[in-house]
Design brief:
mainly alpha; 76% helix
């Protein structure tokens, strides 16, 4: 039964990773698998935890492959309800993360880390809205070696970002100009594109997970202070505006959006307990 649950958790993480601005790492924290994943990847425990990791990875891959088109359609057609639901998930997870970040007495260092992480998320969102010049730049179009190497590098950077709650790996891909290329490759299952992307993801996960695990072992409160800042900053990054129609009043879509916000926040709070 636990394996079925892990598979569906993986699907949610996969869906989150498809949406620019929504963090797969945040979903890991909300669904209670962030710490277990880091612990399971310890070389002394990985053999015993391999079934958990394989099932979770299979669910994540299934979520990416099965829902990449559907989620893109929903965002394009019903952006307010979708983003309000994700904001609810983020807000509902805040109390649990705050408990992990809190120290008595509160340390100024942790407060500074929290504020810096929040500001970083707002700056990243500003870069996205400003349509930075490198967001559509690719070294070579096609299947040449420079192009494939570029895919590996940007996928590694996106994977490192994906590990950190609050930072969207797909948003990083968008900023680096690879999001549309990867989404199109997923839709037609183009292995010439997907294989270097997978190589980059594994490379980024290896580098990023070792760093995060080290922080979790030695500076857990500081790490969760940073995570809390990233998550709160991500609300600003994915905020779609007030749920109002063209007349300035809350219509049916606004009511649905607020309802999903409340339901998803309650669900996340319940999960985190």
């Amino acid at each position: 039964m636990n394996r079925i649950k892990d598979f569906f958790i993986g699907i949610v993480i996969g869906v989150a990773n498809v949406i620019p601005g929504v963090s797969g790492g945040t979903m890991m924290v909300i669904l209670g698998v962030y710490d277990p994943i880091l612990q399971a990847l310890d070389r002394r425990k990985i053999r015993d935890q391999l079934p958990f990791l394989v099932v979770l990875a299979a669910g994540t891959l299934a979520g990416i492959l099965l829902f990449s088109r559907g989620i893109t359609f929903l965002i394009a057609t019903y952006p307010l309800p979708v983003y309000y639901a994700f904001i609810g998930l983020v807000l509902g997870s805040v109390p649990a993360i705050y408990r992990r970040a809190r120290t008595k007495p509160m340390r100024l260092t942790n407060i500074a880390i929290f504020l810096l992480a929040t500001v970083c998320m707002i700056v990243i969102d500003g870069l996205d809205e400003g349509q930075v010049a490198f967001s559509t730049a690719t070294p070579v179009s096609g299947s040449g070696l420079p192009f494939l190497a570029w895919l590996v590098v940007i996928s590694a950077v996106a994977a490192i970002a994906m590990i950190l709650p609050g930072i969207s790996g797909s948003l990083v891909l968008l900023l680096l100009g690879g999001y549309e290329i990867v989404m199109q490759a997923l839709s037609i299952f183009d292995l010439k594109i997907l294989l270097p992307v997978l190589l980059g993801i594994f490379l980024g996960l290896f580098i990023g997970l070792r760093s995060v695990k080290s922080m979790l072992s030695h500076y857990p409160n500081a790490l969760y202070s940073g995570i809390l800042g990233l998550i709160i900053g991500s609300v600003y990054a994915i905020w779609p505006g007030l749920p109002t129609d063209a007349t300035g009043s809350i219509g049916v879509m606004g009511i649905v959006s607020l309802f999903l916000l409340i339901v998803s926040a309650a669900a996340a709070w319940r999960f985190s307990k």
